[in-house]
Write a structure and sequence with these properties.
Elements: H1 14-17, H2 38-61, H3 66-83, H4 86-102, H5 108-120, H6 124-137, H7 142-154, H8 158-168, H9 178-187, H10 191-207, H11 213-229, H12 233-246, H13 251-263, H14 267-277, H15 283-295, H16 299-315, H17 322-330, H18 335-348, H19 352-364, H20 368-378, H21 386-398, H22 402-415, H23 423-431
Helix pairs in contact: 2-3, 3-4, 3-5, 4-5, 5-6, 6-7, 7-8, 9-10, 10-11, 11-12, 11-13, 12-13, 13-14, 14-15, 15-16, 17-19, 18-19, 19-20, 19-21, 20-21, 21-22, 22-23
């Protein structure tokens, strides 16, 4: 998964976990999450903003109200998922922390919002502590255990994650569990199991009348993202179109459509989707727009987009900013500095994706032997990802290990013949004996 939805990032299903706990004892109006059309979507957003203003006012008027701050934290989380604005997650974290400070006991809703906002901000170690407290106090709540498992997965604590996910398998149809379990399956190389789990989750989400539109859109995004990584572009496009019917301006879905267009070599369509996403475009999507202009021969406009990537990150820096690191590695910018950063991150978060990014950075910097050691760590879980195999193949190719390189590059293309708009062609050229 790329962009804000990567999972790379595994998105936190706050409202799904709590069954829309924001309803509790409040005049909060809930819109139909499946409302179709731009007008209905705009009404939902306006309603959400009105609810934020309502609870912010109540919290200001009552400095001792833990409940109002918990409600507000959940609303900020929802808006953060819709807007992609990290400032909304910061506000959610602040409101949730304030609620917990006011009411330590029997305040799981606020703790859940706190852990979810910390996770969204990539403050994984802090999120882990909060999630552990949630599970310790209420081990019977499946959603809390699912959140803990996700954080363990994000941190690369795979032994702990295995125990957590094994205990959740019986609840694999639960919306708080299914997408997280599917990601665990992907890491372990179970592509078909992940696909089946995500499809079931989407069907379940469609049947729910209490999900916000952005949450239902997110389930469509997860299905599409998995299909993209498997090279099933038509399936991915179908899921995205369905999601956009209910959430026409969802920046995450539009960014994914831009990726599909890029993978097809339709650069103008890709740029149109990026333009439609507008200010909601994340760093990866802006970088894609730069790549599209390069492919069209417009290096000046490409440079403008690349400068915007740098400016946007400078305006909103965050820990473990892998879209930022990926951009710098792919475009060979500030490689020594990026390698130092990635090494520091690996010390805290030694997951396979972190090792893969470090290996790719080392390769791009000409440190091939170290890159080979790093890519072995990245492949240790058996993850079946074409980009991972491509990186490994390029590293072995640079080391002169032709047979191993060929096998790895063939595996990458077998897994997904269109895994990247530039790299897939590079792999094919090397296999055809052309210069890599």
């Amino acid at each position: 998964m790329t962009g804000k939805a990567k999972i790379l990032t595994a998105t936190v299903l706050f409202a799904a976990t709590t069954t829309l706990a924001l309803r509790a004892g409040a005049p909060l109006l809930l819109a139909d999450g499946r409302a179709e059309g731009a007008t209905a979507a705009a009404a939902v957003l306006a309603l959400r903003d009105a609810n934020i203003a309502f609870y912010a006012k109540r919290a200001d008027e009552d400095p001792w109200s833990a409940a109002d701050r918990a409600q507000l934290a959940g609303l900020w989380l929802q808006r953060g998922r819709e807007s992609g604005d990290a400032r909304d997650y910061v506000r959610a974290e602040s409101a949730a922390r304030a609620s917990v400070m006011l009411r330590v006991a029997h305040n799981g809703r606020a703790r859940l919002a706190h852990a979810s906002s910390l996770l969204a901000l990539h403050r994984f170690s802090e999120a882990l502590e909060v999630a552990q407290t949630l599970v310790r106090d209420e081990p019977h709540v499946v959603g809390y255990r699912a959140l803990l498992a996700e954080i363990q997965l994000e941190l690369g604590r795979y032994d702990d994650a295995a125990i957590s996910f094994d205990s959740l398998y019986h609840a694999r149809r639960n919306l708080a569990v299914a997408p997280r379990l599917a990601r665990w399956m992907e890491i372990r190389g179970d592509i078909s199991g992940a696909r089946r789990t995500l499809r079931n989750a989407l069907d379940n989400a469609r049947s729910r009348h209490d999900l916000a539109a952005e949450q239902l859109a997110w389930f469509h995004l997860r299905v599409a993202d998995h299909a993209l990584r498997s090279g099933r572009l038509r399936d991915a496009e179908r899921a995205l179109k369905q999601g956009l019917r209910g959430q026409p301006d969802d920046g995450r879905l539009l960014a994914a459509r831009a990726r599909i267009a890029a993978l097809r070599g339709d650069w103008r369509a890709a740029l149109a989707f990026v333009a439609q996403a507008g200010d909601r475009a994340d760093l990866a999507t802006l970088a894609l727009a730069g790549d599209a202009h390069l492919a069209l021969g417009d290096s000046a406009t490409a440079a403008q987009f690349f400068r915007r990537v740098e400016a946007d990150y400078a305006a909103n820096p965050e820990p473990f900013a892998r879209q930022w690191s990926q951009f710098r590695v792919d475009h060979a910018r500030h490689l020594p500095e990026t390698i130092r950063l990635l090494r520091d991150e690996i010390d805290v978060r030694p997951d396979v994706l972190g090792w893969d990014l470090l290996a790719w950075a080392l390769y791009r910097n000409g440190e091939y032997a170290e890159a080979r050691s790093a890519i072995r760590q990245a492949m240790r879980m058996g993850t079946q990802d074409a980009s991972l195999f491509f990186h490994a193949g390029m590293i072995h190719h640079a080391l002169g290990e032709a047979d191993t390189a060929r096998e790895l590059l063939q595996s990458a293309l077998r897994l997904n013949p269109r895994f990247h708009w530039f790299h897939a062609r590079q792999a094919k050229d090397i296999l055809r004996g052309r210069r890599g």
